[in-house]
Amino acid sequence: MDxxxxxxxxxxxxxxxxxxxxxxxxxxxxxxxxxxxxxxxARAPGIWPNPLPEAQARAxxxxxxxxxxxxxxWRADQLPDLSRPRIIHKASCLPAGFRAQGLHGEATHWxxxxxxxxxxxxxxxxxxxxxxxxxxxxxxxxxxxxxALTFRHPAGFAPRHARAQRVQRDPVGEVLIVRRxxxxxxxxxxxxxNYSYLGDxxxxxxxxxxxxxxxxLCARADRALLTDPTRALLGHDAAGDVIFPSSQALWDYxxxxxxxxxxxxxxDAGRAAEP
Length: 275
Known about the structure:
Helix content: 25-40%
Distance between the termini: 42 Å
Number of domains: 3
Oligomer: single chain
Structural class: alpha+beta
Strand content: 15-25%
Protein backbone atom coordinates (compact mmCIF):
# COMPACT_ATOMS: atom_id res chain seq x y z
CA MET A 1 0.00 0.00 0.00
CA ASP A 2 1.38 3.44 -0.95
CA UNK A 3 1.94 5.21 2.37
CA UNK A 4 1.59 8.62 0.71
CA UNK A 5 -2.08 7.93 -0.04
CA UNK A 6 -4.29 7.72 3.07
CA UNK A 7 -6.09 4.36 3.33
CA UNK A 8 -9.84 4.10 3.73
CA UNK A 9 -12.08 2.37 6.28
CA UNK A 10 -15.21 0.67 4.97
CA UNK A 11 -18.37 1.18 7.04
CA UNK A 12 -21.40 -1.07 6.45
CA UNK A 13 -24.77 0.01 7.86
CA UNK A 14 -27.03 -2.92 6.91
CA UNK A 15 -27.16 -6.56 7.84
CA UNK A 16 -25.99 -8.76 4.96
CA UNK A 17 -28.67 -11.01 3.47
CA UNK A 18 -26.37 -12.73 0.97
CA UNK A 19 -23.23 -13.54 3.00
CA UNK A 20 -21.65 -15.80 0.39
CA UNK A 21 -22.10 -13.25 -2.37
CA UNK A 22 -20.62 -10.47 -0.26
CA UNK A 23 -17.82 -12.78 0.88
CA UNK A 24 -16.89 -13.45 -2.75
CA UNK A 25 -17.00 -9.72 -3.49
CA UNK A 26 -14.76 -8.80 -0.56
CA UNK A 27 -12.28 -11.58 -1.27
CA UNK A 28 -12.14 -10.74 -4.96
CA UNK A 29 -11.60 -7.02 -4.41
CA UNK A 30 -9.36 -7.07 -1.32
CA UNK A 31 -7.62 -10.45 -1.31
CA UNK A 32 -9.04 -11.23 2.13
CA UNK A 33 -9.17 -14.86 3.24
CA UNK A 34 -12.73 -16.27 2.88
CA UNK A 35 -12.84 -17.34 6.54
CA UNK A 36 -11.84 -13.86 7.73
CA UNK A 37 -14.40 -12.28 5.43
CA UNK A 38 -17.19 -14.55 6.67
CA UNK A 39 -16.36 -13.87 10.34
CA UNK A 40 -16.71 -10.16 9.75
CA UNK A 41 -19.84 -10.52 7.61
CA ALA A 42 -21.47 -12.47 10.45
CA ARG A 43 -20.92 -9.45 12.72
CA ALA A 44 -22.11 -6.84 10.21
CA PRO A 45 -23.20 -4.09 10.31
CA GLY A 46 -19.90 -2.61 11.37
CA ILE A 47 -16.53 -1.25 10.30
CA TRP A 48 -14.23 -3.45 8.19
CA PRO A 49 -11.19 -3.99 10.43
CA ASN A 50 -8.49 -3.50 7.77
CA PRO A 51 -7.70 -0.22 6.01
CA LEU A 52 -8.10 -0.42 2.23
CA PRO A 53 -6.51 1.49 -0.65
CA GLU A 54 -8.92 3.92 -2.29
CA ALA A 55 -9.37 1.77 -5.41
CA GLN A 56 -10.30 -1.31 -3.36
CA ALA A 57 -12.66 0.68 -1.15
CA ARG A 58 -14.46 2.10 -4.20
CA ALA A 59 -14.73 -1.34 -5.81
CA UNK A 60 -16.24 -2.87 -2.68
CA UNK A 61 -18.65 0.06 -2.27
CA UNK A 62 -19.83 -0.34 -5.86
CA UNK A 63 -20.39 -4.06 -5.26
CA UNK A 64 -22.28 -3.46 -2.01
CA UNK A 65 -24.49 -0.94 -3.83
CA UNK A 66 -25.43 -3.67 -6.29
CA UNK A 67 -26.42 -5.86 -3.32
CA UNK A 68 -28.57 -3.03 -1.96
CA UNK A 69 -26.40 -2.61 1.15
CA UNK A 70 -25.93 0.86 2.62
CA UNK A 71 -22.23 1.57 3.12
CA UNK A 72 -19.62 4.29 2.83
CA UNK A 73 -15.85 4.67 3.04
CA TRP A 74 -13.97 7.09 5.27
CA ARG A 75 -10.37 8.16 5.00
CA ALA A 76 -8.70 6.45 7.94
CA ASP A 77 -7.27 9.70 9.28
CA GLN A 78 -10.73 11.30 9.28
CA LEU A 79 -12.73 8.48 10.88
CA PRO A 80 -14.14 9.73 14.22
CA ASP A 81 -12.31 8.25 17.19
CA LEU A 82 -14.47 7.99 20.32
CA SER A 83 -11.99 5.82 22.22
CA ARG A 84 -10.44 8.83 23.94
CA PRO A 85 -13.45 10.63 25.38
CA ARG A 86 -13.25 13.29 28.05
CA ILE A 87 -14.13 11.61 31.34
CA ILE A 88 -16.65 13.68 33.28
CA HIS A 89 -17.18 13.29 37.03
CA LYS A 90 -19.58 16.18 37.59
CA ALA A 91 -22.15 17.53 35.16
CA SER A 92 -25.50 19.26 34.98
CA CYS A 93 -28.43 19.02 32.58
CA LEU A 94 -29.61 22.65 32.43
CA PRO A 95 -32.47 24.11 30.35
CA ALA A 96 -30.10 25.57 27.74
CA GLY A 97 -27.50 22.84 27.54
CA PHE A 98 -25.16 20.27 29.03
CA ARG A 99 -22.51 21.61 31.39
CA ALA A 100 -19.47 19.58 32.37
CA GLN A 101 -17.83 20.75 35.57
CA GLY A 102 -14.47 20.38 37.26
CA LEU A 103 -14.04 18.85 40.68
CA HIS A 104 -14.51 22.27 42.30
CA GLY A 105 -17.65 23.19 40.37
CA GLU A 106 -16.03 25.31 37.67
CA ALA A 107 -17.48 24.96 34.19
CA THR A 108 -15.08 23.10 31.90
CA HIS A 109 -17.33 22.65 28.87
CA TRP A 110 -20.70 23.79 27.65
CA UNK A 111 -22.77 22.15 24.89
CA UNK A 112 -26.14 23.52 23.73
CA UNK A 113 -28.66 20.72 23.40
CA UNK A 114 -28.98 21.14 19.62
CA UNK A 115 -25.25 20.39 19.30
CA UNK A 116 -25.58 16.92 20.85
CA UNK A 117 -25.51 14.36 18.01
CA UNK A 118 -25.47 11.04 19.87
CA UNK A 119 -26.27 9.56 23.26
CA UNK A 120 -25.04 6.00 23.58
CA UNK A 121 -25.49 4.23 26.90
CA UNK A 122 -25.01 0.66 28.03
CA UNK A 123 -23.93 -1.48 30.90
CA UNK A 124 -20.30 -2.58 30.81
CA UNK A 125 -19.12 -5.87 32.28
CA UNK A 126 -16.57 -5.55 35.06
CA UNK A 127 -13.95 -8.24 35.58
CA UNK A 128 -14.42 -10.41 38.64
CA UNK A 129 -12.01 -9.95 41.53
CA UNK A 130 -10.31 -12.75 43.42
CA UNK A 131 -9.65 -12.32 47.14
CA UNK A 132 -7.52 -14.68 49.16
CA UNK A 133 -9.44 -16.49 51.88
CA UNK A 134 -6.59 -18.48 53.46
CA UNK A 135 -3.22 -16.73 53.08
CA UNK A 136 -0.22 -19.00 53.48
CA UNK A 137 1.51 -18.58 56.83
CA UNK A 138 5.20 -17.58 56.95
CA UNK A 139 6.53 -21.05 57.94
CA UNK A 140 4.35 -22.73 55.29
CA UNK A 141 5.63 -20.32 52.67
CA UNK A 142 9.23 -21.19 53.54
CA UNK A 143 8.54 -24.93 53.30
CA UNK A 144 6.76 -24.48 49.99
CA UNK A 145 9.72 -22.50 48.69
CA UNK A 146 12.18 -25.20 49.72
CA UNK A 147 10.09 -27.88 48.09
CA ALA A 148 9.88 -25.81 44.92
CA LEU A 149 13.68 -25.61 44.85
CA THR A 150 13.85 -29.41 44.90
CA PHE A 151 11.16 -29.63 42.19
CA ARG A 152 8.65 -31.21 44.53
CA HIS A 153 5.08 -29.96 44.49
CA PRO A 154 4.24 -28.14 47.76
CA ALA A 155 1.78 -30.04 49.92
CA GLY A 156 -1.70 -28.63 49.56
CA PHE A 157 -0.66 -26.54 46.57
CA ALA A 158 -3.52 -25.24 44.44
CA PRO A 159 -3.83 -22.69 41.65
CA ARG A 160 -4.38 -19.11 42.78
CA HIS A 161 -8.06 -19.03 41.85
CA ALA A 162 -8.70 -22.26 43.77
CA ARG A 163 -7.35 -20.61 46.93
CA ALA A 164 -9.29 -17.43 46.41
CA GLN A 165 -12.90 -16.43 46.62
CA ARG A 166 -14.44 -15.03 43.47
CA VAL A 167 -16.03 -11.63 44.04
CA GLN A 168 -18.48 -10.95 41.23
CA ARG A 169 -19.18 -7.41 40.09
CA ASP A 170 -22.38 -6.23 38.47
CA PRO A 171 -22.16 -4.46 35.10
CA VAL A 172 -21.74 -0.70 35.47
CA GLY A 173 -23.67 1.91 33.49
CA GLU A 174 -21.77 4.13 31.06
CA VAL A 175 -22.89 6.78 28.60
CA LEU A 176 -21.07 8.47 25.73
CA ILE A 177 -22.30 11.93 24.77
CA VAL A 178 -21.08 13.20 21.40
CA ARG A 179 -21.35 16.83 20.36
CA ARG A 180 -20.49 18.43 17.02
CA UNK A 181 -18.75 21.68 16.06
CA UNK A 182 -16.29 20.76 17.45
CA UNK A 183 -16.53 16.98 17.63
CA UNK A 184 -16.06 16.03 21.29
CA UNK A 185 -17.07 12.87 23.16
CA UNK A 186 -17.81 12.84 26.87
CA UNK A 187 -17.82 9.66 28.94
CA UNK A 188 -19.74 9.29 32.19
CA UNK A 189 -19.47 6.18 34.37
CA UNK A 190 -22.33 5.42 36.71
CA UNK A 191 -20.31 5.04 39.92
CA UNK A 192 -17.77 7.81 39.16
CA UNK A 193 -20.27 10.64 38.76
CA ASN A 194 -21.35 13.43 41.12
CA TYR A 195 -25.13 13.78 40.72
CA SER A 196 -25.60 16.76 43.05
CA TYR A 197 -27.41 18.77 40.36
CA LEU A 198 -30.41 16.44 40.84
CA GLY A 199 -31.23 18.23 44.10
CA ASP A 200 -34.40 16.80 45.63
CA UNK A 201 -34.39 13.93 43.15
CA UNK A 202 -31.04 12.65 44.40
CA UNK A 203 -31.13 9.04 45.64
CA UNK A 204 -28.65 7.36 48.03
CA UNK A 205 -27.03 5.25 45.29
CA UNK A 206 -25.31 5.80 41.96
CA UNK A 207 -27.39 2.94 40.55
CA UNK A 208 -30.52 4.95 41.34
CA UNK A 209 -29.17 8.30 40.14
CA UNK A 210 -27.76 7.16 36.80
CA UNK A 211 -31.17 6.39 35.17
CA UNK A 212 -32.52 9.77 36.31
CA UNK A 213 -29.51 11.56 34.83
CA UNK A 214 -29.81 9.56 31.59
CA UNK A 215 -33.52 10.39 31.30
CA UNK A 216 -32.76 14.10 31.81
CA LEU A 217 -30.05 13.96 29.18
CA CYS A 218 -32.18 12.22 26.57
CA ALA A 219 -35.27 14.37 27.17
CA ARG A 220 -33.35 17.62 26.67
CA ALA A 221 -31.14 16.53 23.76
CA ASP A 222 -34.19 15.92 21.60
CA ARG A 223 -32.26 16.08 18.30
CA ALA A 224 -29.69 13.48 19.30
CA LEU A 225 -29.73 9.91 18.05
CA LEU A 226 -30.52 7.59 20.94
CA THR A 227 -29.10 4.12 20.40
CA ASP A 228 -31.24 1.04 20.99
CA PRO A 229 -29.41 0.09 24.23
CA THR A 230 -29.98 3.66 25.46
CA ARG A 231 -33.71 3.36 24.78
CA ALA A 232 -33.77 -0.01 26.49
CA LEU A 233 -32.13 1.46 29.61
CA LEU A 234 -34.73 4.20 29.59
CA GLY A 235 -37.43 1.53 29.64
CA HIS A 236 -38.50 2.14 26.05
CA ASP A 237 -39.34 -0.75 23.75
CA ALA A 238 -36.12 -1.17 21.77
CA ALA A 239 -34.13 -4.09 20.46
CA GLY A 240 -30.40 -4.37 21.10
CA ASP A 241 -27.99 -5.62 23.70
CA VAL A 242 -27.64 -3.46 26.80
CA ILE A 243 -24.54 -5.16 28.22
CA PHE A 244 -21.16 -4.69 26.52
CA PRO A 245 -18.07 -6.78 27.34
CA SER A 246 -15.87 -3.69 27.70
CA SER A 247 -15.82 0.08 27.42
CA GLN A 248 -13.99 -0.30 24.12
CA ALA A 249 -16.89 -2.37 22.77
CA LEU A 250 -19.31 0.40 23.72
CA TRP A 251 -17.07 3.00 22.05
CA ASP A 252 -16.79 0.94 18.86
CA TYR A 253 -20.56 0.47 18.72
CA UNK A 254 -21.09 4.19 19.38
CA UNK A 255 -18.71 5.17 16.57
CA UNK A 256 -20.70 3.06 14.12
CA UNK A 257 -23.99 4.56 15.29
CA UNK A 258 -22.56 8.09 15.00
CA UNK A 259 -21.49 7.40 11.41
CA UNK A 260 -24.94 5.96 10.69
CA UNK A 261 -26.62 9.11 12.00
CA UNK A 262 -24.47 11.29 9.72
CA UNK A 263 -25.04 8.97 6.75
CA UNK A 264 -28.80 9.00 7.31
CA UNK A 265 -28.84 12.79 7.65
CA UNK A 266 -26.90 13.26 4.41
CA UNK A 267 -29.08 10.70 2.61
CA ASP A 268 -32.30 12.33 3.75
CA ALA A 269 -30.98 15.79 2.86
CA GLY A 270 -30.11 14.52 -0.61
CA ARG A 271 -33.60 13.10 -1.09
CA ALA A 272 -35.19 16.35 0.06
CA ALA A 273 -33.12 18.26 -2.53
CA GLU A 274 -34.29 16.04 -5.39
CA PRO A 275 -36.83 17.67 -7.75
